[in-house]
Write a structure and sequence with these properties.
By secondary structure, this protein is mainly alpha-helical. The chain has helices spanning about 20-35, 40-45, 50-80, 80-100, 105-115, 120-130, 135-145, 145-165, 170-190, 200-205, 210, 215-245, 250-255, 260-280, 280-305, 310-335, 340-370, 375-404. The longest helix has about 30 residues, at about 215-245. It is globular. The relative contact order is 0.16.
């Protein structure tokens, strides 16, 4: 099994197997989407409005974003390993809470607490940047984040089957088991990759203006946030489109729901293969433009009435492909602006991505309530993807100015 090896080894660093990092990202993603096909059933179980149950997506993403603001700085100070292990324990406890909940309010409380799993996603990226320079880190992140492509591809399908056979709670039993196995794997394989910081958190915070005043950092963050925004809008609106517009049953919806992950898997593979040779800026631009173009074509087909679940979900592969090119490369860019604050950069960048995603997920649900079929969702996704193109062009312009 391959390991991430530091080209300039340091005594304080013990690199993990790459599959450990893939698993960290994969379980984080599984927690986000495995239960989505069960939302209508959960609404019946808790005797709650569907819109209230759907908050299990938006609230989770919101807490996820807030936690990322503190996870990164804490890991820069105390190390990646202890923060990841603690976050996994909190995730397992919250999952047990979801299983025993008897009211929707209790369920939503523990669902928000499940966002502690965010430590796995945030710090797996920081671990890669601890070990590699910018372009090489982008290539490695392309492979590591394949967990974000494979899991969305199979997660909702598995969730739909489990819900049909054993009820919606089976999805959370799956998450609990995955959390236990991931904690054991992390404990055994993931050593510390970041030397423990000196001083206290207050002294560390004084270094943040170095990062927060960098236009390059915010440019890479914006490119990633808007590109992923299209996907998060999809998360918030696609269950409604699938069930209400295309009359799909939960199992079929779960199968089609993973369509973006097909493109994301391909995009991750391309990033892993070519980012080091082509450079991150070119890869980001190709991904952002490709995503926007695919969605624009889907918008045109939807306006003309040429639409079906095959067309709608088929074009979602463009969203995945664009994200697979943009996210690993933009992440490597934002983490490379100030390498000694890689954990903080990963947290801030992730908070922007997830926080914006939570907002777009909620907006998507709100827009679809006005009718118009799938068009309002597609239009929102086009707007977000277009903003990613603009952010990418401005960042490239800034990089050229600094190089000149």
């Amino acid at each position: 099994m391959a390991t991430l090896t530091d080209p300039q080894p340091r005594a304080s660093r013990t690199p993990p197997h790459i599959l450990t990092l893939v698993a960290l990202v994969g379980v984080s993603t599984l927690s986000m989407n495995v239960f989505l096909p069960s939302l209508p059933t959960m609404a019946d179980y808790f005797a709650a409005d569907y819109g209230l149950v759907q908050l299990s997506v938006g609230l989770y993403l919101g807490v996820n974003a807030a936690l990322q603001l503190v996870v990164g700085p804490i890991s820069d100070r105390y190390g990646r390993r202890p923060v990841i292990l603690t976050g996994l324990v909190l995730f397992m406890l919250a999952t047990v809470g979801c299983l025993v909940a008897t009211t929707i309010e209790t369920f939503l409380f523990f669902r928000m607490a499940q966002a502690a799993i965010v430590v796995a996603m945030v710090l797996s990226r920081a671990v890669v940047r601890d070990l590699y320079p910018q372009d090489k880190a982008a290539s490695m992140l392309g492979y590591v984040t394949m967990g974000m492509s494979v899991v969305p591809m199979v997660g909702p399908a598995i969730g739909g089957v489990l819900e049909a056979q054993f009820g919606w709670q089976s999805n959370f039993w799956l998450l609990l088991g995955a959390g236990v196995l991931l904690w054991i794997l992390t404990y055994r394989d993931l050593g510390e990759t970041a030397p423990r910081g000196t001083g206290n958190l207050r002294e560390q915070v004084r270094q943040y203006p170095e990062l927060l005043t960098s236009r390059r950092f915010w440019g890479y963050c914006a490119a990633s946030a808007f590109a992923s925004g299209s996907f998060f809008a999809y998360l918030g609106g696609a269950p409604y489109v699938g069930t209400e517009v295309f009359s799909m049953d939960p199992a079929t919806l779960g199968l089609f729901f993973g369509a973006p992950a097909v493109g994301y898997l391909v995009g991750n593979g391309i990033s892993g293969r070519f980012s080091q040779a082509m450079g991150i800026d070119r890869m980001i631009l190709i991904g952002a433009v490709g995503q926007a173009a695919g969605l624009a074509l889907l918008g045109g087909l939807t306006v003309t009435g040429f639409t079906s679940h095959w067309v709608f979900f088929g074009f979602m592969t463009c969203v995945g492909l664009g994200n697979g090119l943009v996210i690993p490369n933009a992440t490597a860019g934002m983490l490379s602006v100030k390498p000694h604050l890689a954990g903080t950069a990963s947290g801030l960048g992730g908070a922007m991505m997830i926080g914006g995603g939570a907002a777009l997920s909620a907006v998507a649900g709100w827009l679809l309530a006005f009718g118009g079929g799938a068009l309002p969702l597609v239009a929102l996704m086009i707007a977000s993807a277009s903003c990613s193109v603009v952010a990418t062009l401005l960042t490239i312009r800034r990089n050229r100015a600094l190089a000149g």
